[in-house]
Amino acid sequence: MTTRRTILASTLALTAAPAFAQGAPTTEIATGRIRGYLDNGIITFKGIPYGEDTAPVRFQATVAAKPWAGVRDCLALGPRAPQGGDGGGSLANPQLATPISEDCLKLNVWTPALDSKKRPVMVYIHGGGYGSSSANSLLLDGVRLSRKGDVVVVSLNHRLNAFGFLYLAELGGERFADSGNAGMLDLILALQWVRDNIGRFGGDPANVMLFGQSGGGAKSSVLMAMPAAKGLFHKVWTMSGQQVTVTPPEMATANARQVLNAGPFTVANLAQTPMDALIRVMGRSPYYGPVLDTRNIPRHPFEPDATPLSRNIPLVMGNTREETTTLIGPGDPATFNLSWEALPGKIEQHIAQYIGHYNPADIVAMYRRLYPAYSPSDVFFAATTAGRSWRAQFVQADRRAAQPAGSAPTYIYQYDWQSPADGGKWRAGHMADIPMIFDNVAYGVGTTGGGYDAQKVADLMSSAAIAFARTGNPNTRGLPRWPAYNLTTRPTLIVDLPPRIQNDPRGEERRYFDALGYRQPGT
How far is CA 226 from CA 57, 302, 314, in A? Predict the structure, then answer.
């Protein structure tokens, strides 16, 4: 198993700007000439500006990067978006040691060659909800995926939390009309950059796949409902990241008032306050996320039905079997050793906002009836996974499947492979599929455990993602025939060794939670 010391050494190696010999790869993009470097045979560019410093336009729509003179070195990752915390991430999602800055609109490109081959383009949107994290992670290095699939891989940073989603349109006037969705507009600007420049990297702007985990999957789902994003991507793959609804403007305005009252601030001086001061007060809002502003997001992505705007976009959606071992477990270790008496209270503590009027004791009784061999902790992780993540996936999948005949297919998977890391403690937790889809088992050893079986799972997932990026169909060698999802049989790929197709897995759970209906927290 890779040690923390090895991970640290890898972190330092990837953070440092590489040396390059004369003749290092260069290319011309719309804003000027850039220089990259070779990494294990893959041409790599890091920290390419796609937008200007956002500080002068805080809470406003993004501004495209301006041209520069000469050759710009693009050898190191750009800064993370402003956020709280130390930026180290977790063992499951190790972050590289990069500073935070409002000048964060940078992206990274990995490509096998600077030619005109028109390779599939895989654009990754990072997780961390809408409030934290970055693309500056060991897990998201694109070298192995690019080399394995002969594809162009792109990752990027964008505005988060108050900087990207503080809705001030009703409090600050026209100048701040885009404020609640500034972070989403950053993503659209990045996709416009891909459209205009990716041909210089051997990529095909007419064959772009979005993929993202957790918040990155949710952002991809929201982009499916944004008219300004139409035509900028052609396929979507989400991992533990659904977004059925977005925040109503009245709720987003109430959240913004809490931040303004913390100063107290006016909208104008909040826009000018130092970055660190805004970071200190932005926690006063209970939620940050996209807003139903009618200007940029005219309707909910999957409420009351699937957005017709993206009905021709093929979609893959997946969740891990035990999402909450790594979402909740690290912060509340007691959840790994619960008693039956303590279980209902823990469910109430962690997912009250997801279960509404449902009685936690009734949920426990349902799970004990369905799975009599489950321990209290087994029930906790199953129930909280269903409440937080899995329910929204089947809502979104069902609504996609109900679209008119001739709509693009949806494919569903459940990641079941049980990691041996830490004695199997984390099972198939949230983020377990990130190192698999990037074929970065070694960097993800904290969740994968490393080893032969982990690499077999990575080969399956990365190959399916590459196939989907190329053709819109994830079927590939090593998988059973993976049918498109439908409301009759609900076929689901179970990602395990060996992989298998199962119709309507956890069907009784689905029917139980179906009766509850679904409301996205923060909406």
Answer: 22, 12, 16
